[in-house]
Amino acid sequence: MAALGSLELLAAGFSASFGVQVLPPQAAAVSDCRGADEAPHKLTIHDLFHLSHSMVPREKPCTTGGEIEVNCRGMIGGTTTIRVSLGTTVSEMKKMVSDKLGIEKDIRFMYDRNILDDESTVESAEILNGATINFIVLTKDRKPEGVFELDPALLARSLDYDFTKRNDGNAVYMRGAYRYYRPCGWYRYAVSVTNVYGNNTWLGSGGIRTNTSPGEWPVSYHGTKMRNEGAVVVKEFRGGELEYINGVYSSPSLAMIDEFYAQIFEFEGKSYKIALQNRINPDIAGGHLKIIPKERTEVGADYWVSPMEDPTEKIYDVRPYGIIIKQV
């Protein structure tokens, strides 16, 4: 039976979080695929993080001439851009994509990790101008076509750490100018991020330490349920009106993420939770970070919002460097 720290458990956690079948490395034999020449499609850690971090509160669509552009990206290839109006339905959008890409099978649309119903419109789904919708091709029995294989190349297994029996008590750890709450009670899978973003100053020096390093970024946590059913209730009142802030949401409080946003999944008869551990660009003055204090939230903890995060512009203000899982 696989235990905490296994890639089988990690793959199961990702499958539950992102609505696709993700298998551990080399687990899918050719005979299990839908054709002898079909190999499992590599789904990298960064692909999964992209799906997770697109889950942010959205502003209402702003259009020019009554239309917006929507990017549609297939999870195993195929990308196109379509122009739609606020009243365009998801069913009509699927036909546009299928016609442009020559897809003859049904497809499933996912936006902010939520599966979109055919009857939903651009307006009701709050799809923004320039937004990206992910899609999966479906089989006749409406299951995702093909299998996905977790790519281990972006994992740094030698840096994994078992916090399941750790208790920091009154010890205070610092990362950047903020307190770091270590994921005690969880198992952390390390992500290979060394030299990925240029210099490694943001990571700080290695080893277990309570102090911070010059230029080090603080630690936050992100739960993959942060978009589910409008779960993120960030409220700021300006002039008596409710305002939602666009950006990637996380929090320095793992306890809050654990309670509200960590995805629960089943594996080999047991229940687990999964969340992401990140480093966050702390440049408040430059607009890279906005802190919403716990007094203005309904979850008893601060939200950290990274409004400038944009991988298409190579702005990586939220840098996941760990995946944490615990049994519940």
Summarize this structure as a short list of keywords or feature phrases.
alpha+beta, globular
SSE topology sketch:
Blueprint lengths: L6 H12 L3 E2 L17 E3 L1 H9 L13 E8 L4 E7 L4 H12 L5 E5 L2 E2 L16 E6 L10 E3 L10 E2 L10 E3 L2 E3 L6 E4 L28 E4 L13 E3 L2 E3 L4 E3 L3 H7 L2 E5 L2 E11 L9 E3 L10 E4 L11 E10 L1
Parallel strand pairs: 1-8, 2-8, 3-7
Antiparallel strand pairs: 3-4, 5-6, 5-7, 9-12, 10-11, 12-21, 13-18, 14-15, 16-20, 17-18, 18-21, 19-20
Q: Globular, elongated, flat, extended or rod-shaped: what is the shape?
A: globular
Distance between the termini: 17 Å
The rounded Rg comes to: 20 Å
| Average pLDDT rating | 83
Which stretches of 5+ consecutive residues score pLDDT under 50? 55-60, 233-242
The structural class is alpha+beta
Strand content: 25-35%
Largest sheet report: 6 strands, antiparallel
Helicity range: 10-25%
Write down the oligomeric state. single chain
Counting DSSP E segments of at least 2 residues, the number of strands comes to 21
Order of helices and strands: HEEHEEHEEEEEEEEEEEEHEEEEE
The number of distinct helices, counting runs of at least 4 residues, comes to 4
Walkthrough of the structure:
With 328 residues, this protein is of the alpha+beta class. The protein has helices at residues 7-18, 45-53, 90-101, 254-260, and strands at 22-23, 41-43, 67-74, 79-85, 107-111, 114-115, 132-137, 148-150, 161-162, 173-175, 178-180, 187-190, 219-222, 236-238, 241-243, 248-250, 263-267, 270-280, 290-292, 303-306, 318-327. The strands form 6 sheets. Strands 9, 12, 13, 17, 18 and 21 form a 6-stranded antiparallel β-sheet that branches. The chain is globular, with a radius of gyration of 20 Å.
